[in-house]
TrEMBL record:
Gene3D superfamilies: 5'-nuclease. Residues 56-200 form the NYN domain. InterPro entries: NYN. Residues 1-21 are annotated as: Disordered. It comes from the Bacteria. It holds the Pfam family NYN. Residues 11-21 have a biased composition (Low complexity). It comes from Streptomyces gamaensis. This is NYN domain-containing protein.
Length: 329
């Protein structure tokens, strides 16, 4: 502090100059801008805190068919077994719901190969499923997929870059997917590798296992309900199960099955009560695995036939179930 006896700055003889009016106005403007910025930051942070997490499932169909076929049917040849792809996809969705309980599903990406990228009948049915996007690579002369890995990388990287997903469940095993994992992680997404139990050795590249944030393997009990081995054929080349007649009664219509779905829903609601209904509605159009299995068993008992090989009729069954529940809410 300056000695007042010297008459230096700040003394009684020479008081410090008052700030100019313009300087006071500038300070007030800066203070107001800082306060406004803090307010905006507070609002952004509050919005981020309340924004739900989002996850997506990326499934390499070639890996799924080969791994599930080898595990359940003992072969990777798609011609030797039927895969209930719809049921398996729904099981994946249900599993993701339990693993990411506070997250919503963006969609399932189903990557497969096709000649000239023209959808097969089966791929068309999968593409019609809600929340499922079919992405096609090419098939070469040896029925090998080409371009699928690059499609997975493009989608994973794009969604992570735009913050469209916080978690990615990747079902595959090719080492070429490592770059896709690294790209998504570079934008802050977590990548979880899902695989099918291997009969012998590994069916996923070690380099891929090293890069992901978590790993999960689906065993025989999980996969078995979705595979039917083609063991015999009738004269027209149609597969049927051992011991079953080659020509069975015609399947019921979609309307018939939809009506049965509504019947089961009425029984379910009567035994569970409206509180259980309120818990189901946020998951529409998906049903928890236990409820979906109960619906299928009850419907098959009422119809007197199995719906395991009729993906379109199972969709009608669920539609009828939901139709009844939504009218009661």
């Amino acid at each position: 502090m300056t000695d007042p006896r010297t008459g230096g700055p700040g003394s009684a003889a020479h008081p410090a100059p008052a700030p100019a009016p313009g300087a006071t106005a500038d300070l007030a403007t800066v203070a107001a801008a800082v306060e406004r910025t803090n307010e905006l930051l507070t609002r952004v942070l509050a919005e981020v805190a309340t924004t739900p997490s989002t996850h997506a499932i990326f499934a390499d169909a070639g890996y799924v068919y080969a791994a599930v076929g080898r595990l359940v049917a003992g072969t990777e040849d798609r011609r030797a077994f039927d895969l209930d792809a719809e049921g398996l996809i729904e099981a994946f969705i249900d599993k993701a719901r339990t693993i990411f309980p506070d997250s919503r599903l963006l969609r399932v990406y189903w990557y497969d190969g096709a000649r000239r990228r023209i959808h097969t009948t089966e791929q068309q049915r999968i593409a019609e499923l809600p929340d499922v996007k079919v992405r096609l690579g090419n098939l070469n002369a040896n029925n090998q997929q080409k371009g699928v890995d690059s499609l997975i990388r493009t989608d994973l990287e794009s969604l992570a870059r735009h913050r469209a997903i916080s978690d990615a469940a990747l079902i595959g095993g090719d080492e070429d997917l490592v770059s896709a994992v690294e790209a998504a992680q570079g934008y802050g997404a977590r990548v979880h590798l899902w695989g099918i139990e291997s009969v012998g050795g590994r069916n996923q590249a070690e380099a891929l296992l090293w890069e992901v944030d978590s790993q999960r393997t689906f065993d025989l009990d999980f996969c078995k309900p979705f595979v039917t081995r083609r063991t015999a054929y009738d004269g027209a080349g149609t597969a049927f199960a051992p011991g079953a007649p080659a020509h069975q009664a015609a399947a019921p219509s979609r309307d018939d099955v939809r009506f049965v779905g509504a019947q089961v829903a009425a029984q379910w609601l009567g035994s569970r009560g409206r509180d259980s209904l309120a818990e189901l509605l946020p998951g529409h159009p998906y049903l928890p695995g236990s409820v979906d299995q109960e619906l299928l068993v009850e419907a098959e008992a009422l119809l007197g036939l199995s719906l395991r090989g009729h993906a379109d009729l199972r969709r009608a069954l669920r539609d009828g179930f939901w139709d009844h529940l939504r009218t009661q809410y």
